[in-house]
Known about the structure:
The chain is an alpha/beta fold. The protein is built from 13 helices and six strands. It is globular and about 60 Å long.
Amino acid sequence: MAALRSFSPHPQTNPCVIVLAxxxxxxxxxxxxxxxxxxxxxxxxxxxxxxxxxxxxxxxAPTREELSVVSxxxxxxxxxxxxxxxxxxxxxxxxAVEEALAKKHTALLxxxxxxxxxxxxxxxxxxxxxDPCLRKKxxxxxxxxxxxxxxxxxxxxDPESAQKIPYQNIHRVIRALEVxxxxxxxxxxxxxxxxxxxxxxxxxxxxxFGLRWGRETLRARIRARTANLIAGLLQEAQNLMSAxxxxxxxxxxxxxxxxxxxxxxxxxxxxxxxxRVQLATAQYAKRQMxxxxxxxxxxxxxxxxxxxxxTIAQEILRRMGKNxx
Length: 325
């Protein structure tokens, strides 16, 4: 690949905020760099895994060379043991966007963390903190009577949430039950009443774009990318293990890292590791698209192979039109 060089586009008189969303392996980072050749911008991470130090290869974070050619914010900066959440991201990202706009730069938010982007632009529902005793009660019910029995409990108190949350997703089912027990109000009602759009969040126009692929094509891209990153993922997993990062550290919830540890301990074969990471990534991509498809603000860009990030970047600029300058 030819060496990257620093971009020096003509500055805009009216900077804006661009959101570039989409599933994993959809090419968001490549399109972001292509946009940087045309706009004076700063790229702000909206991926919940690329925030952690030591996870660059396994999360396909921008390379050191890519980070050097245009300003990147909120990438690879958090210790693996440190928790992070959507509320914290909203505060950090809002500050990064405001600082970019103050410098007359466009702020380009890039990532697939739909909940993080929702927290930034729509705010978060005022939900109570976790109650360990209640959670233990529901976990024991699921263990002794099954996940479907737990889901029936949710149907009794919050049928709207029960329709949206599959019984297999025990964490979300328990959280919905917990919120109802603590507040006496269904979590679905709390979300609905507290949801507030913020079109004037920033003193600049905001554009939402998404990269969309056919299902089989995206799966093929995921398989290819997993094959390319697996060696780096294993090295990073070994580094984390050597640094005594605990198995329950937040960073270890990232796709593939616990499976990599199992491989390093001899519990998985190479083919099993590769298959597990590919499958988990494909399932995650499906959940991402389910989330983003519900957002009417997103202007979708359809993609097919061969992928040309520069063409997609030009289409984004075309759709933004004369509002850009």
